Amino acid sequence: MFFKRASSSAVSDTPVGPVSAVISVRGVDKAFPVGGGQSFALRRITLDIKPGEFVSIMGPSGAGKSTLLHIMGIHDAAWEGEYYLMGQAIHALPQKERSALQKRHIGFVFQSYHLLDNLTVYENIELPLSYRDVKRSDRQSIVADVLDRFGIVAKKDLYPSQLSGGQQQLVGVARAVVATPDVILADEPTGNLHSSQAQEIMELFKSLNAQGTTIVQVTHSEANAAYGSRVIRLKDGYLQTETP
User: Fold this and answer.
1) What whole-number distance in Å separates Cα of residue 74 and Cα of residue 41?
2) What is the pTM of this model?
3) Which CATH class is domain 23-243?
4) Taking a C-beta distance cutoff of 8 angstroms, is the pair 73, 185 a contact?
5) C-alpha span between 237 and 224 (Å, rounded)
6) DSSP at 16
7) Nearest to 113 by CA among 216, 183, 177, 189
């Protein structure tokens, strides 16, 4: 069983934006400087993701999928528009308060793992719990359960450099779900896994979603997208279609 973390008092829970959506973006633009001008990765993106949805973002390479996910994950602050997370106006908050909301509500699965090289598998998975008011004895129990669930108990004392790409991906997913976040954002979560492992991860996401966790994944896989309830398609930075 995953731990449901205690709420932090660092940031007000009083919503100031759309409260019918877990995630709401309005007119979001993201541009990169190119020569004397700029190139847009996202243009005028407006969408809502409701509580308990399982949404897949799809589109060709370079469409802006991962860029949008990282904005939702509060890893990127250099964009224009409005973004509300759990009713909180992220675009209007200083970085410290944005980070507090991120740690409280979001679990993120990175395409390139982003494990901390100087921490063991156990310590990487435990890290999100250390941000919350979770007793050490409880953390030990929670991490032990997750290690067992992902079949990586034997790897707990190893460092990321000692793991294969697939093993690092499993640790990354375990870290994202260990604190039972309100929202899981996953960037190609099964890209480095064998088919059986990939299916297990998608079944885990399906189970977490059935328990109320909102999930947004970037994927090229139609099979993975079929686990969700809605598909959002991007092309050249624009929102194209939403499939129920």
Assistant:
1) 16
2) 0.89
3) alpha beta
4) yes
5) 22
6) -
7) 189
